[in-house]
Design goal:
Blueprint: H1 2-19, H2 26-78, H3 82-87
Helix pairs in contact: 1-2
């Protein structure tokens, strides 16, 4: 994303140089600017997707931990009673 931002700035500088007649490559400057802007947008999208996935993973792991604690408590409270153990269920 940082490289895309730098490329975008350099592309804009190239466009301004073309307008001042100091450079003769308007197509290259334009394409570079557009591709750099797309790289920045893709980087932002990838960061949002990554952090959303990490948050979802954390929530799922918390849920699994809570279910496991509930199951462990049930087994512990059964104290070897087979009827009580058969009522303990680990929800998936």
């Amino acid at each position: 994303m940082i490289v895309g931002f730098i490329g975008f700035c350099l592309g804009l500088a190239g466009i301004f140089r073309v307008k001042k007649k100091k450079a003769s490559n308007p197509v290259t400057a334009g394409i570079g600017t557009v591709l750099s802007a797309l790289a920045v947008i893709a980087g932002i999208y990838a960061m949002v997707a990554f952090f959303t996935a990490v948050e979802e993973l954390g929530n799922d792991l918390d849920e699994i931990g809570n279910k496991w604690d509930s199951y462990s408590d049930c087994v512990e409270n059964a104290e070897g009673d087979l009827d009580a153990l058969s009522e303990c269920e680990y929800e998936k």
